[in-house]
């Protein structure tokens, strides 16, 4: 694999010898499902790593169309190539037509804030695999990486406004932090004293003040 190490919510394609590079041996049924998925030319989602994981390993997830979730722990060398999360623009054609106006508003919000809006969850799986994942009550899981805290505030205000305008689909997702952690945008909008942060390895509660301090000072 060339390039930067894949991170949570990225997508990876496994090489032909992946089964010889597993680090936590999966059951026979998991091997069968993963093999079939890979042979169809489909990717896997990068999952949160565990604190004890070696740097040369990667945890992956495979959510099957029936909602069964499989986990895989492999050597980093098992990865043939990887992709970033798809953008809202990329997945729009894979979404139900009724979601179009809401997604267009999200695209416009991202453009106004100069943010690339990524997508994970069921809509991303549907887009990446071509298999059916999205259901009538599915959420849209969005991914944002603002560079400044003022952009976080503008983003939350904009997302709440878009959500009020479009009740046909629930907008969910995460705000990525400068240290690699991630928080639910809906939880962050409530401005709680402490908020649960999913890090590159493990998860822990942090204060809102700690989150603000991760961003560069602004004049």
What is the gist of this entry?
This protein has helices at 28-39, 88-91, 100-112, 122-129, 149-165, 185-189, 208-213; strands spanning 11-14, 44-46, 57-63, 69-75, 79-83, 118-120, 140-144, 171-176, 182-184, 194-198, 203-207. By secondary structure, the chain is an alpha+beta fold. The chain has 2 domains: 10-83, no CATH class; 97-213, Beta Polymerase, domain 2 (2-Layer Sandwich), CATH 3.30.460.
Which CATH architecture of the largest domain? 2-Layer Sandwich
Q: Give the distance, in angstroms, between the N- and C-terminal Cα atoms.
A: 41 Å
Radius of gyration: 18 Å
Mean pLDDT comes to: 95
Series of secondary-structure elements, N-terminal to C-terminal: EHEEEEHHEHEHEEHEEH
Structural class: alpha+beta
Q: Percentage of helical residues? A: 25-40%
Number of domains: 2
Shape: globular
Strand content: 15-25%
What would CATH call the class of the largest domain?
A: Alpha Beta
How is the main sheet built? 5 strands, antiparallel
Unreliably modeled segments: none
In DSSP terms (H or I, runs of 4 or more residues), the helix count works out at 7
Strand line-up across the major sheet = 4-3-2-1-5
InterPro entries: Holo-ACP_synthase, MdcG_C, MdcG_N
Domain Phosphoribosyl-dephospho-CoA transferase MdcG C-terminal: 89-202
GO molecular function: nucleotidyltransferase activity
Protein name: Malonate decarboxylase holo-[acyl-carrier-protein] synthase
């Amino acid at each position: 694999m060339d390039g930067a190490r894949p991170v949570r919510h990225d997508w990876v394609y496994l090489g032909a010898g992946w089964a010889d590079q597993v680090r936590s041996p999966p059951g026979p049924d998991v091997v069968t499902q993963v093999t079939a998925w890979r042979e169809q030319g489909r990717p896997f989602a990068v999952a949160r790593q565990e604190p004890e994981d070696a740097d040369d390993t990667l945890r992956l997830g495979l959510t099957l169309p029936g909602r069964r979730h499989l986990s895989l722990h492999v050597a980093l060398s098992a990865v043939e190539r990887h992709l970033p999360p798809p953008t809202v623009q990329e997945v729009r054609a894979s979404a139900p037509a009724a979601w179009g106006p809401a997604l267009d508003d999200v695209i416009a919000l991202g453009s106004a804030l100069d943010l690339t809006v990524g997508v994970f969850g069921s809509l991303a799986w549907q887009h990446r695999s071509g298999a059916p994942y999205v259901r009538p009550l599915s959420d849209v899981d969005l991914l944002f990486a603002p560079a400044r805290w003022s952009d976080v505030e503008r983003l939350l205000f904009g997302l709440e406004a878009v959500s009020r305008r479009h009740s046909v689909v629930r907008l969910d997702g995460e705000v990525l932090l400068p240290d690699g952690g991630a928080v639910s945008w809906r939880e962050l909008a409530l401005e709680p004293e402490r908020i649960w942060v999913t890090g590159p390895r493990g998860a822990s509660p942090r204060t809102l003040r700690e989150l603000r301090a991760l961003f560069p000072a602004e004049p």
